[in-house]
Design goal:
Length: 57
């Protein structure tokens, strides 16, 4: 799951952070990929538009 694609879906990194209840700086620190720990939250918030990556990291 790519950070940029998810941020675009929510409207911005700031709006993504607000949806997750975290600081925008935390989203910026993710880099290219959304951390596994946040992917399931995003899957629920996006109503399945984004699917969590089930690979072990």
């Amino acid at each position: 799951m790519k950070t940029r694609e998810v941020a675009d879906f929510f409207g911005s990194k700031k709006k993504l952070a607000e949806a997750l209840g975290i600081q925008p700086s935390a989203v910026t620190m993710w880099g290219e990929l959304v951390p596994q720990s946040r992917q399931y939250q995003i899957q629920v918030l996006s109503k399945g538009r984004f699917q969590a990556d089930h690979k072990s990291s």
